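Sequence of Uridylate kinase (Tepidamorphus gemmatus).
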Amino acid sequence: MGSGEFGLDMAVVGRIAAEIAAVARQGRQIALVVGGGNIFRGLAGAAKGLDRTVADHMGMLATVMNALAVAGALRNVGAEAVVMSAIPMQAICETYTSYDARAHLEAGRIVLCAAGTGNPFFTTDTAAALRAAELGCDALFKATQVDGIYSADPKRDPAAIRYDRLTFSDVIARDLRVMDTAAIALARDNRIPVIVFDIHAAGALEAILAGGGRSTLVSQ
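Predicted 3D structure, token representation.
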């Protein structure tokens, strides 16, 4: 989270939290699914010899650390936020259930969903699509390092083509890999549009919700 390759940049976390809080004050219900790749990636750990299940559990713990940091930053700007983990750890945060998460959302709290799905071998993207389906979300916003979906990595290929709109079938058929196939299929089957945007673009989330900004919309 930030310009570094590892750890947390609390200035960046604070800016993002302020933007999320501003959107929440408009009366929108927000659930965040937080990743942990800035601390530990399960696949990377498995590639270095760790048992995949153990590595994925370590990655889930990293997402809880990030969720706690974001929740703290949200509270610092006056928002109510609650961390809910798919893996029970009552001394640190609440255990996720869709019923309790919906109750928090109805009460105006921002819900941070951590620890993925609670199971190894499932990505944060799949967890995001699952939570969006469980909570009846109107859309799934995928925050990335670029302003949408490209035909290739624009940081490596200057000829990469940026798309404004795609169908779920386009993403799968072209193997665009903005999210894993399971996540895309889950969003498609539940008719949840996916909006891909640049997390580093100041005001991007609010601009997109207002009908502007730069993003890629993936829908039916």
